[in-house]
């Protein structure tokens, strides 16, 4: 079952995606990697049920991708002023 403290996985996913980017991964593949990591965490760490793990994993991966995108956009708009 998904617990509220499992939301801490989102920054962990962001960190793993950042490692891949520093290793040479193109920025355009970052959301896909985030979703893949989210699915892996959802299936193998958060939930014993595969269906629930997929849903939770998608939620985690898409949340990590959105958090990265919105933070990036916020700082880019701040630099233009």
Descriptive overview:
This is Holin. Keywords: Membrane, Transmembrane, Transmembrane helix. The chain crosses the membrane at residues 29-48, 54-71. The chain is mostly helical and 81 residues long. 77% of the residues lie in helices and 0% in strands. It has helices at residues 9-22, 30-46, 50-80. Helix 1 packs across helix 2 and helix 1 packs across helix 3. The longest helix has 31 residues, at 50-80. The radius of gyration is 14 Å and the shape is elongated. The termini are far apart.
Largest sheet: none
Would you tell me the structural class of the helices and strands?
mainly alpha
H-E string: HHH
Distance between the termini: 45 Å
Helix content: over 70%
Q: Low-confidence parts, pLDDT < 50 over ≥5 residues?
A: none
Count the beta strands: 0
Radius of gyration: 14 Å
Mean pLDDT equals 84
Proportion of beta-strand residues = under 5%
Please state the overall shape, judged from the principal axes of the Cα atoms: elongated
Summarize the structure.
The protein has helices spanning 9-22, 30-46, 50-80. The protein is mainly alpha-helical and 81 residues long.
Write a concise keyword list for the protein shown above.
81 residues, mainly alpha, 3 helices, transmembrane, transmembrane helix, membrane, Holin
Helices and strands in order:
Elements: H1 9-22, H2 30-46, H3 50-80
Helix pairs in contact: 1-2, 1-3, 2-3
